[in-house]
Design a protein that fits this description.
single chain, about 550 residues
C-alpha cells in the first residue's frame, strides 16, 4: 500500500513528533506502553501487547477504567478485520419496575452506586482475544500490571486532578475510600500509589484465564459485596457473560473505509456524519475555515439526532444499513444551511471516566482497543478484596417505554447504550490506521474531525491530533478549544452557534492514539501519533 500524501509541516502547537517503528504500542500512560512492548520483546504479537497494556491501564488510570470495565476491539489479523463486543449486560432483576420501586416512576437508573452496575466485560475481552489470536501464556500478560499494582506508581498530574475532583462525590460509595483514598484523601501528584488488592486479582485472572473473575473467587466476592449493599448483580449474571465477535460496520469516505463496532454503541455516528459530509466539497475549503468547521458541526448534530433516537443493543426500529444509506444521508445533507446553525431532530431512515490503546507488529497485525468504567471511577463501588472498581453503564438505560430514548429501555440481560468505540481505517481492503479518541460523545466527533483532516486536508496523524477541536453538546451549544483561531470562533458565532471557549487544557476534547501503516510493516513500519491533550489520562467516559 502506498503512503498517504500528507501535507508537510504542523501549524498547530504541539509537544509531540510522530514515532516510526516496526512494532508499536500507543497508550496514554508510559507504564502501560512499556507493558505492551515488554510482550513484543518476548516474542509476543500485537494482541499480546494490547492485552498487557489494557491490564496495566486498569491500574495506572483508575479514574478512567478498571478491572470492572467494559471493552471493545477491532483488529486486523493480517488478512481480515474482526470486531469484538465485550460490553456487559444488565442483571436479570433489572426491569423498569425494579427502578420504579426503588426510585419512583420512570426514574432513570442512578448515575452512581450499586444500581448503576452492569456485568463487567473487559476481562472477557482479554480472554477472548488471547484465545483466538494470542501467542504468549495468558498469565504472563497479566504480570506487568500486577507488578505495577504491587510496587506502585507515582500519580501523574492529570490523573491526580480527576481523582481529587471525583472523591467528594464518591467517598461514601462502598469500598471507594478503602481503595482510592489510602491516606483518607486523594493522593498528591508524585505520591506512590499501591493497589495490592488489584495485583491479587490480576494474578488470579491470569492463572485461571479469567474463570476466577466470572465463575470463581472474584465473582463471588464482587456479587456478595454488591448484594450486601442492596444491588442485584448475581453469580448467575457473571457466569452468563460472553463477549460477542461481530462484523464491523463499514462506511466509505473518499476512497477510504471507516470501520466501527455496530450498535448499541455510538460509532455509527462518525460514519453517518462522514456520509453526510461526502455530499460537500470540503477540500475546496480551508481546513480551519469557518465554512468547513460549520459543515462538520452540522453533520455531527444530524448524526447524533438519529443515534440518540434509534441506536440500541437490540430491538432497533431501523437497521444500521438504513441509517448509513447513501440516499438517506444525502437527504439529511440537504437540511444543512451553510449560513446558519440549526437544532436538528431525528430523521426517518426507513426507505419506502475511557482509555484507548492501539498496537501493531511487524507481521502486520493491528489492534484498536478501548475500555472504560464510563463516568470517572464508574459506579464508585469498589470490591475491596480484589480491587474491582465497577462500571456504571446502567446509567445508559431508559426506564420510560414512551420516551425519546425508549430504544434503550432497561431489561434483564440487555446491554445499555455504549459510548466507547474503537475505530479502524482501510483502503482497497487493506489496513491503513488503527485509532481511537476518548471522551463520552466526543469519541465519534473526534473520529470524524481527525479523519476529515487526514483525508480531505492531507494532514499527518500528529498534525490532525494537534489541531484545535470543537465539541457539540446539545441544541446550538458547542465548546471549542482556546487554541482555535478567534476569527473562526467569531465566524461560528455569527452563524448562530452558541460557542463556549474552553481554556482548561484538561477539558475533554478527546485524547487519542493513532497508528498509521506506512506500507509493509516488516520494511517500513508504522507512524505513531498520540494526542497531548490528556497526557497521562484518557478521558473518563
Amino acid at each position: 500500500m502506498s503512503n498517504a500524501s500528507f501535507v508537510p509541516g504542523n501549524p498547530y502547537s504541539s509537544t509531540r513528533i510522530p514515532v516510526f517503528a516496526r512494532n508499536a504500542v500507543s497508550t496514554s500512560h508510559p507504564l502501560a506502553a512499556q507493558a505492551g512492548l515488554r510482550m513484543l520483546w518476548r516474542g509476543g504479537n500485537a494482541v499480546d501487547a494490547a492485552i498487557a497494556a489494557a491490564a496495566a491501564m486498569a491500574i495506572v488510570e483508575p479514574v478512567s477504567n478498571g478491572l470492572g470495565s467494559d471493552a471493545f476491539c477491532i483488529l486486523w489479523d493480517g488478512k481480515e478485520l474482526h470486531g469484538l463486543n465485550a460490553s456487559g449486560r444488565a442483571p436479570q432483576e433489572w426491569t423498569p419496575g425494579y427502578f420504579e420501586k426503588r426510585y419512583g416512576r420512570q426514574a432513570k437508573p442512578p448515575r452512581r452506586g450499586v444500581d448503576s452496575i452492569t456485568v463487567p466485560g473487559a476481562v472477557s475481552a482479554w480472554v477472548a482475544l488471547h484465545e483466538r489470536f494470542g501467542s504468549l501464556p495468558f498469565a504472563e500478560l497479566m504480570e506487568p500490571a500486577a507488578e505495577i499494582a504491587e510496587r506502585g506508581y507515582l500519580v501523574p498530574p492529570v490523573v491526580q486532578q480527576k481523582w481529587a475532583a471525583g472523591a467528594p462525590e464518591l467517598e461514601k460509595q462502598p469500598g471507594f475510600r478503602e481503595s482510592f483514598l489510602p491516606w483518607g484523601r486523594p493522593p498528591q501528584v508524585g505520591e506512590l500509589f499501591r493497589f495490592p488488592a488489584a495485583a491479587r486479582a490480576l494474578r488470579a485472572i491470569g492463572e485461571t484465564r479469567g474463570k476466577a473473575f466470572y465463575e470463581g473467587e472474584i465473582a463471588q466476592a464482587v456479587t456478595s459485596f454488591v448484594q450486601q449493599h442492596g444491588g442485584a448483580l448475581s453469580m448467575a449474571d457473571m457466569a452468563a457473560n460472553q463477549p460477542e465477535w461481530v462484523k464491523p460496520l463499514a462506511k466509505n469516505y473518499r476512497g477510504y473505509t471507516l470501520h466501527e463496532i455496530p450498535p448499541g454503541g455510538q460509532g455509527i455516528a462518525a460514519q453517518i456524519a462522514l456520509g453526510i459530509l461526502s455530499n460537500f466539497d470540503l477540500a475546496s475549503l480551508g481546513a480551519d475555515s469557518v465554512a468547513s468547521q460549520h459543515l462538520q458541526i452540522e453533520a455531527m448534530k444530524l448524526a447524533f439526532a438519529d443515534v440518540y433516537r434509534y441506536v440500541a443493543d437490540a430491538g432497533m426500529e431501523v437497521t444500521s444499513e438504513q441509517m448509513l444509506d447513501d440516499a438517506y444521508l444525502a437527504s439529511r445533507a440537504k437540511l444543512i444551511d451553510p449560513n446558519r446553525a440549526q437544532d436538528f431532530q431525528a430523521g426517518n431512515p426507513v426507505q419506502g471516566g475511557t482509555i484507548y490503546l492501539t498496537a501493531a507488529d511487524e507481521s502486520g497485525m493491528m489492534v484498536s482497543f478501548i475500555q472504560s468504567n464510563f463516568a470517572g471511577f464508574g459506579s464508585g463501588v469498589v470490591e475491596p478484596t480484589f480491587g474491582i472498581s465497577l462500571q456504571n453503564r446502567g446509567f445508559g438505560f431508559s426506564t420510560d417505554p414512551e420516551g425519546p430514548n425508549r430504544a434503550n429501555l432497561v431489561g434483564p440481560g440487555k446491554r445499555p447504550f455504549h459510548t466507547i468505540i474503537p475505530a479502524f481505517l482501510t483502503q482497497n481492503g487493506q489496513p491503513v490506521m488503527s485509532f481511537g479518541v476518548m471522551g463520552g460523545n466526543m469519541q465519534p466527533q473526534g473520529h470524524m474531525q481527525t479523519v476529515v483532516r487526514m483525508i480531505d486536508y492531507h494532514q499527518p496523524p500528529q498534525t490532525a491530533c494537534d489541531a484545535p477541536r470543537w465539541r457539540f453538546n446539545e441544541g446550538l451549544e458547542i465548546n471549542v478549544e482556546s487554541s482555535m483561531d478567534p476569527a473562526t470562533v467569531a465566524g461560528l458565532q455569527a452563524l448562530g452557534h452558541k460557542v463556549e471557549v474552553i481554556d482548561d487544557p484538561y477539558q475533554d476534547f478527546g485524547a487519542g492514539q493513532f497508528i498509521w501503516r506506512m506500507g509493509d510493516p516488516a520494511v517500513e513500519g508504522y507512524q505513531i501519533a498520540s494526542d497531548p491533550r490528556r497526557d497521562g489520562l484518557a478521558a473518563g467516559f
